[in-house]
Amino acid sequence: MAKFEPVLTKNFGIEGIRTLDVYRKQGGYKTAEKVIKEQKPEEVVEVVKASGLRGRGGAGFPAGLKWSFLPPDREVTYFCVNADESEPGTFCNRVLMEEDPHQLLEGILIAGFATKTTTAFIYMRVEFHEQFHILQKAVDEAYAAGYFGKNVFGSDYSIDCYIHRGAGAYVCGEETGLIESLEGKRGWPRIKPPFPAIEGAFKRPTVVNNVETLCCVPHIFERGVDWFRGIGTENSKGPKLYTVSGPVNRPGCFEAALGLTARDLIFGDDHGQGMRDGKKVKGCIPGGLSVGVLTEAELDCHLCFDDVRNYGLLGLGTAGAIVIPDDADIRQVLKNIARFYSHESCGQCTQCREGTNWMYKIAARIAAGAGRISDLDLLVDITTNMGMMPGLSICGLPDGAAFPIRTIVQKFRSEFEEHIRNQKPGVVEQVIRKTNPAAYELPILGQRAVSV
Ligand SMILES: Cc1cc2nc3c(=O)[nH]c(=O)nc-3n(C[C@H](O)[C@H](O)[C@H](O)COP(=O)(O)O)c2cc1C
Ligand code: SF4
Fold first, then answer.
1. Architecture of domain 235-325 in CATH?
2. What digits encode the pLDDT tens for the residues 384-413?
3. What dotted CATH number matches 20-229?
C-alpha cells in the first residue's frame, strides 16, 4: 500500500501560514481561481459527487448529493459552515481553523460556487475565541484580495462571507438548530421536512457542511477524483482527521486515510503512541461521544463509515476518540456521559427531555453506590425508546445519547453488576439522600411509585 501523504494538515507548522501571502506561496487559492474561472457550477457538483466525499460532521452524508438537492430555479442560496464542533472528544475543526484558516476559505469558495451561494455564514461556537480572531483576519485579507465580495477572481461570481458566533450549545451543532440560532432565535432544531436545501436559513435554500468536509474540497480539484477515491475503504473515501484524548502518550489531531483502526490511533507511532504511566485501555469511545464505546478487545475496528456498525456503534461520527483507562470507574464514566445529554437536550421533545434526565438520575444513583441490577435493564430499555430511529424525536440528540449509554451498559455489564453486588445499601441510601436528593426521587429507589 502506498504511504499515506497528508493534505489537510500539510501546511501545519509553516511559519506565517495564517496569512494570505504565505498561503498563496504554498499554491493556495490557485485551485479555487481555476475552478471558478473554468468550470460550471453543475460540473463542480458532479466532480464532488464522483469523488465519494462524505460529510465529516457526523452523519456521513454524501456532499455532492446534498448540493444537488437545491432547487434549480432558486434566486438566493445560503451556505452555513458548521464550525460549532460541539461533540465531546472532537477538536479537528478547531485545529483546521487555527492552523490553516485559508484552506477552509478556499473550500468555501469552491463549494459556494458549486451551489451558487450568495452568502456564506461560518457558524462558530463562542468558546473558539482565538480561532474566531484568526479566521476573521483571514476573511478580511481574502476580501481585500478580491476573493470574497463582488466578482471574485474577476469572474461573474460574487459571494459574501460572515462569521457568526453561537452562544455555546451542543444542539446548535445540529443543522436546523444552527439555522435557528443564526436567525437570532432560540437555538433548537426544526421539524423536517422541509429540509434546509429547500427551506433553510431565512426561509431560503441552504446547505450546511462541516469545516473538515469543506477543507477536503480544494484537494479533490487539485489532485483529482481518482486520487481521492484511491484513499480509504470501499464506502469511505479520502483523508480524515482523527483526534485522540485521554491518558495516551501523544494526545492530538492526526491525519490518516479513512479506515484507520482504533488500535492504531491509540498505539501507532504516528498517532497516540500508546498509554501513559503503564495504564491499559479499558475502552475507547472512537467517534465523538455519541457513537458508543469499544472494549479493548474491539480496538481492531476500522474507523470508517461501515465497519463501526459491526461493533454496535451509531456510526463513524467525528472520529474523535476518547480513551478510557483501566483504572477508570465505569460508573463515573456512565454518569458523566448521561449528565452531558441531560444537560444539552433542548427540551422540545418529551421523550428526549425526560429520557435523558431519567438516564442521568439512574446513572447518578448507580455511581453513588445505590444502584440495582434492574437499573441496567431499565437504562437499556430507555435507550431503545427515545430517538429519531424509533421515529420519536425532532433531532438526533437522543440517538447520540442512547448509543454510548446502551453500549457501555451492555459491554461492561459484569463490571457494573460487580459494583452493585458489593454495595452497602443502608449507608449509601443515607449518603445519597444528603448529597443528591434528586437521585432519591427516582423510580425503584425509595420504593416510589413512579413508572418509567
Ligand atoms: C445534536 C447534534 C449535534 C451536532 N453537532 C454538530 C457539530 O458540532 N458539527 C457538525 O459539523 N455537525 C454536527 N451535527 C451534524 C449536523 O446536523 C449536520 O449533519 C452536519 O453539519 C452536516 O455537515 P456534513 O454533511 O459536512 O457532515 C450534529 C448533529 C446533532 C444531531
Ligand atoms: S430530540 Fe431532544 S435535543 Fe432534539 S429537538 Fe427534541 S428535545 Fe431537542
1. Roll (3.10)
2. 988 777 778 999 999 999 999 999 999 999
3. 3.40.50.11540
